[in-house]
Amino acid sequence: DSTVAAAPHTRPQPSAAELIDEDEDHDVAAERANVQRALDERAARAVSGTAMGGGMAKGGGETYTWPVELHKLRKVYPGGKVAVHDLSLTVRENECMGLLGPNGAGKTSTIAMLTGLYAPTSGHATICGFDLREQMDRIYERMGVCPQFDILWPQLTVLETLTFYLQLKGVPADERRDRAITSATSVELGFAANRLVGRLSGGMKRRVSLAISLLAEPAVIFLDEPTTGLDPETRRQMWSLVDIAKRGRSIVLTTHSMEEADALCGRIGIMAYGRLRCLGPSLHLKRRFGDGFRVEATHAKGCEEAATAFLAQVLPSARRHNRDVSSVDTITLQVAHGTVRLSELFARMEARPVDAGIVHWSLSQPSLEEVFLAVSRIAEAEHLGATAGARKGSKPSLAEPPTAVLQSTTRSVSDDSLSSGTSSSGSRSNHGTSRQGADLGAEGVENGAAGVRCCTHGEAAHAPSRSASPIFSA
């Protein structure tokens, strides 16, 4: 959704007075400031008795700005364990918000509070305008949940299972059967409507759980690792169903799959040690926390020295990844932002001499997995006080993403410059001169970040691979 994707870049930045944590990520601070401003505006309107302004949705006789709104939500378990630290977050309509994080990050505790399983220790949250503490019964009417583990009865058929949950939702008896059939069909289980749940495959059971979460047209849906344990084909089928389901709804998705988050989520938040560490569209996070971009060049057999020498001329500051035994004819380079104009890179690679031996090359952005590892390591360093006693401001901080941390998470990046390759092979081979993606190399593109931005617009509509995905290939 283009509106969702643009939001983190257009929202006003918080003032210094609004910043509680000097090391807090700018987008996280901006989100918290947005929530605070919305609360202040609603409070002011309530005092003055004026009507809500434009852009406010309505539900249950009340008005709200976002379907899901959290303000300084906090959970402390008996014994003093702080599971969630003052979380401020919004989820918009037609948006799938992804919550990522290592085990123990606070994702499950957050979902448990929002679904009424645990009471928050402090803070405020609303779903469709209803207060989490006072109006949970009203929230249940507008909420759907797909838990991590299926809660199904093997003795019931698919139709009986859906009918039972429709009854819990308060759907009139004369409507339940038709709506149950429609629901089963919507998740491609119409053919198995009369089959016992206990005889379904794992993937089919997950689809039943998804169908349950969609019953009675909920406005907000929580999906807790919906594709865990599924094979790749079934997983992609589930992604298609979730992508359709988010239309007109708000979805909160927790997952350990970077590929899943990349494919489904308009915005992604990464949590660690109970705190929201970064927030934004996948491309935005890759651009902020990624260490430039990656160039892969495949050379003809026996032409490695010639290809290395040519690439050293084109990208003198690039660093080379250690050789991957599975791709002996491929040279992989890490190129930092701002070290090369992409228009010049494209021009020189398109005009490369035949004796350079390069038969194919591609350009790719950092993977979401690399961003996740970098953010997690920064959070761990902050949590453990890895630089205790250092000067204030010298510790790892998400306020200014350190590329050094990300570099340590990539696959064995070598510190040796390509300039070490000085010999040139006389081997010659044909090379392609495809102009695919020439728009990326248009004049005026100054660095890798801008190039990635103009070449991957709308990336969430596709399912990228777990590794860095090529955004240009020639």
TrEMBL record:
Residue ranges, compositional bias (Low complexity): 408-444
GO CC annotation, single: membrane
GO MF terms, alphabetically ordered: ABC-type transporter activity; ATP binding; ATP hydrolysis activity; lipid transporter activity
Membrane topology: Multi-pass membrane protein
Pfam families per the UniProt record, alphabetical: ABC_tran
TM annotation in the entry: none
Spans annotated as Disordered: 1-26, 386-444
InterPro entries in the record: AAA+_ATPase, ABC_transporter-like_ATP-bd, ABC_transporter-like_CS, ABCA, P-loop_NTPase
Lineage top rank: taxon: Eukaryota
Keywords: ATP-binding, Membrane, Nucleotide-binding, Transmembrane, Transmembrane helix, Transport
Subcellular location: Membrane
Main location: membrane
Signal sequence annotation: none
Matches recorded under SUPFAM superfamilies: P-loop containing nucleoside triphosphate hydrolases
Domain ABC transporter: 68-298
Record protein name field: ABC transporter domain-containing protein
